[in-house]
Design a protein that fits this description.
The structure holds two protein chains of two kinds. Chain A has eight helices and no strands. Chain A is mostly helical. Chain A has a single domain, classed as MetI-like fold (Orthogonal Bundle), CATH 1.10.3720.10. By secondary structure, chain B is an alpha/beta fold. Classes of the chains: A mainly alpha, B alpha/beta. The structure holds adenosine-5'-triphosphate and magnesium ion.
């Protein structure tokens, strides 16, 4: 069997660089996911209000996010707005803005879905016990919403982690970009490196996303009603 | 009549344009057990839901201890604590154990200590034969057990009046009895109750007063249940009661 080209990773600091690239991807995902969860919960609550204009606005926002490829959003924010508004936006901030913009919309819709799936009788029996809206929301509605939400949002989170590979399009050196650089640099000495290096990248993504989705399965089982 | 606990005066209730309750008056005395019967859709549930202001009313007023019960009033939480309610569909909080279901409101709403609330909860559970189920989740209970827990949960707030809306209607027949027995014990202990039910023999056994409701109005009212259930005065009640008997 031919050399698969994994050996180039052990040349010099190549593997460390790859991990460094991975950290860039993970950092962007972590920050964006955190922002999306907080804003998404707010948005989900907004979406359940019986306010027509608010509902329509949220709907439009969600549709825009769904229709637009994330890459286009990235380009608009990173190349477009910096020209038009003349501000200085680092690629990382642009990425976080775009991923949060996306994540908030999707998370908002998941929160909305979880909220409206809680039966009306839960609200009513809590009110009948004299609970005020704050207590009712915090102790009755929110815990049930979170239980329904977590398995759904894990799916979104892994999608966000995977999609961070797009940020190399705006010049960020994340894991996939590092992999490309390593492969380019060793084109002569190790022509098969493309396979080995990308395979390792695959493993790295797997190692990050797999525990996250296992956690979702576990929580789903534990909270099964 | 200064023994009145609850006064319902000329209430009107409509959903959009569709009127459900019309000029309904009812005075409930302390310790009284009133059974409300009537055909499906006549407004029984709506009446109970108006009493603890889960629904707002378009006219008239509802007074508990002389204080109006109003949905948007500031004291609504305090008023609802005096009015316990158990629903037909299972309404326990699925993410909480039996014990936590019962103690949540006493602790969070009435600011009682956990220890105090739990002691009372366990004592009440014991009374309904469920002391050993305190750490179970609702999904682990049968329908009859859930409804007994729901009753205990309502009682744990020390309500002045208990509203029961067809609490056995969703149960398998063999579980109806265990729940009705609990209600009967409560009635004997002197708690004021408004009961909506389709269990006619139970209604006859427990009622101090029977109210027959139709189209959102009281059509017949009787303080002699035995007489009402055997020979009601109005033709409508007669007809309604006949649907519960199989005769050839
Ligand atoms: N949320 C609602 N919106 C609109 N109409 C309603 C609503 N709830 C009840 N109604 C209507 O009000 C009327 C009375 O309903 P209610 O539930 O009080 O009847 P009920 O006497 O409890 O009947 P059942 O024996 O079937 O429980 C019915 O015509 C019903 O369709
Ligand atoms: Mg009803």
């Amino acid at each position: 069997m031919q050399n698969m080209g994994i050996d180039v990773l052990f040349k010099g600091r190549n593997f460390l660089r790859l991990l460094g690239g991975l950290w860039v991807a993970v950092r962007i995902s972590l920050i964006s996911v955190a922002i999306s969860i907080v804003l998404g919960i707010l948005m989900g609550m907004l979406m359940t209000l019986k306010n027509r204009p608010v509902q329509i606005l949220c709907r439009i926002y969600l549709e825009i996010v769904r229709i637009m490829p994330q890459m286009v959003l990235l380009f608009i924010v990173y190349f477009g707005t910096t020209r038009v508004f003349g501000w200085n936006l680092s690629a990382e901030y642009a990425a976080i803005i775009v991923f949060s913009f996306w994540g908030t919309a999707e998370m908002g819709d998941l929160v909305r879905g979880s909220l409206i799936s809680i039966p009306k009788i839960q609200y009513e029996s809590a009110r009948a016990l004299g609970m005020k809206e704050g207590t009712l929301f915090r102790h009755v509605i929110l815990p049930q919403t979170v239980r329904r939400l977590i398995p759904l949002s894990i799916n979104l989170i892994t999608r966000m982690i995977k999609t961070t590979s797009l940020v190399m399009m705006i010049g960020m050196v994340e894991v996939l970009k590092v992999a490309q650089q390593i492969i380019e640099a060793n084109r002569k000495s190790s022509p098969n490196a493309a396979f080995g290096v990308f395979f390792v990248v695959f493993l790295l993504y797997f190692l990050i996303c797999w525990p996250v989705s296992r956690a979702a399965v576990y929580l789903e089982k534990r909270w099964a009603e | 009549m200064d023994n009145a606990l609850l006064r319902i005066e000329h209430i009107e209730k409509a959903y959009d344009e569709h009127g459900v309750i019309h000029d309904l008056n009812l005075v409930v005395e302390k310790g009284e057990v009133i059974v409300i019967i009537g055909p499906s859709g006549c407004g029984k549930s709506t009446l109970l839901r108006c009493i603890n202001a889960l629904e707002d009313i378009q006219g008239g007023q509802i007074l508990l201890d002389g204080v109006p019960v109003k949905r948007d009033a500031r004291n609504i939480s305090a008023m609802r604590q005096k009015i316990g309610m158990v629903f037909q569909s299972y309404d326990l909080f699925p993410h909480k154990t039996v014990l936590d279901n019962i103690t949540l409101a006493p602790i969070k709403v009435q600011k009682r200590t956990r220890k105090d609330a739990e002691e009372e909860a366990v004592a009440l559970l014991d009374r309904v034969g469920l002391a050993d189920r305190r750490d179970d989740y609702p999904r682990q209970l049968s329908g009859g057990q859930k409804q007994r827990v729901a009753i205990v949960r309502a009682l744990s707030m020390h309500p002045e009046i208990l509203l029961l809306d067809e609490i056995t209607a969703a149960l398998d027949p063999e579980m109806v009895r265990e729940v009705l027995d609990v209600v009967l014990t409560l009635a004997r202990s002197g708690i004021t109750m408004l009961i909506v039910t389709h269990e006619m023999s139970f209604a006859q056994a427990i009622a101090d007063r029977v109210i027959f409701l139709e189209n959102g109005q009281i059509v017949e009212e009787s303080r002699d249940p035995a007489k009402f259930f055997t020979e009601p005065e109005t033709p409508r009640a007669k007809e309604f009661l006949r649907t519960f008997r199989y005769e050839r």
